[in-house]
Amino acid sequence: MKAKNRWVFSIALLTLTMLAGTYHLTASTELALRYVPTTHKVVALTFDDGPHPQTTPQILRVLKEKQVKTTFFVLGSNAATHPEWVKQAAQDGHEIGSHAYSHRFFNTLKTTEYEAEMDQTNQLICQLAHEPAVFRPPGGSWNDAVARAALLRGQTTILWSVDTGDWRRLPVGQVVKNTLDNVKPGSIVLMHDGQPALPTAEAVGIIIDKLRDKGYQFVTVSELLQYYEVRH
Ligand SMILES: [Zn+2]
């Protein structure tokens, strides 16, 4: 998403949140997105917890071969240790989002602690890739204050609607099935590249082929946000 569009989107979400507060609606559903409501057959593949020196290059190879752009929610601590794979992912055209620095769950941290995690990671991603426009809280642990802190940093908080189960090291076929059974237009698919020996690299190639057969296109999370359709 272009910087200007990103700000417009952030401000729109912030306004919605303030309105929700005024009218006592649940703000939580709007502050963090699990999927993007759309009628277009678009889907965003996302990878958390990397980079990892074995797993990340394996996944990047498959994505390059299939010509698919995705979003990597990198962990600041891993990006600091293996900066070359963050740079490579960005060079390949993938979006780099923040997954905070040390994978501590934000609901257990003080505001100053999680803001430091956010700022440290953002700074690193800016140096290695680009200004991050999306933020995924570690373990999906967030609250309204966390999402507002992200918005103030120009970032939308992104959760997921499809858990592939790759992090549990399920067999490739099961990871593929979990995905295909649950993907809908606007889905955000959760995968991982932060550990070795994951089924992810093998599964993602099959997932891409099968979803393409069903007419899906693959976009980064920021691109997916552009498909947001307000329902009446
Ligand atoms: Zn994670």
TrEMBL record:
GO term, biological process aspect, one: carbohydrate metabolic process
UniProt key word NAD: no
Keyword annotations from UniProtKB, A to Z: Hydrolase, Metal-binding, Signal
Signal sequence region: 1-20
Domain NodB homology: 41-219
Keyword Chloroplast: no
Any one of the GO CC terms: membrane
Superkingdom classification of source: Bacteria
MF terms (GO), sorted A to Z: hydrolase activity, acting on carbon-nitrogen (but not peptide) bonds; metal ion binding
Pfam families: Polysacc_deac_1
PANTHER family named among the record's database cross-references: CHITIN DEACETYLASE 1-RELATED, GLYCOSYL TRANSFERASE-RELATED
Descriptive protein name: Polysaccharide deacetylase
Species of origin: Anaerosporomusa subterranea
